[in-house]
Design a protein that fits this description.
Layout: H1 3-31, H2 36-61, H3 66-71, H4 76-102, H5 107-129, H6 131-135
Length: 144
């Protein structure tokens, strides 16, 4: 599979995971994180989402210094998405640690939820700008 095909597969996975994590995040907001299974599902989706985002960035930037690459990006929207994603990850890790120790919702979990919703909105914007790539059919090499 070439890089473009890998990127498309990763992007479609990210789209499905974005919808899933948004749905589970809304459910947790509405129920105030009251169900153990719902929180574990959200954590599992978050881990899958994080792995997919890392792979997505790897497909774009390889093993280079990602902090430096994002710092130099001309597209400010993508740069903001990077920083909001990092904030979501950090607050998510802290909230997960707190939740696994107490099985209760915490203020950091609430902050994580708000930043996470912002990240999902930015991710949708990021996707909308690139929707033609996602919808395009792969080019076949036809020998002449």
């Amino acid at each position: 599979m070439n890089k473009i095909a890998k990127l498309k597969t990763c992007d479609w996975s990210l789209l499905l995971l974005t919808i899933s994590i948004l749905a589970s995040g809304i459910y947790l907001e509405v129920t105030q994180s009251s169900g153990l299974a719902a929180v574990w599902i959200h954590i599992a989706l978050g881990i899958l989402f994080f792995i997919s985002v890392v792979y997505h960035i790897f497909l774009h930037f390889g093993k280079s210094n990602w902090f430096e690459r994002f710092r130099k990006l001309k597209n400010q929207f993508t740069r903001v998405l990077w920083w909001v994603s990092l904030a979501t990850l950090i607050t998510g890790i802290i909230a997960c640690i707190h939740w696994t120790m107490t099985y209760s919702h915490s203020p950091i979990g609430g902050i994580h939820g708000k930043i996470g919703f912002l990240m999902v909105l930015l991710s949708i914007g990021h996707l909308c700008k690139r929707i033609s790539f996602l919808k395009s059919k792969p080019k076949r090499n036809i020998p002449s």
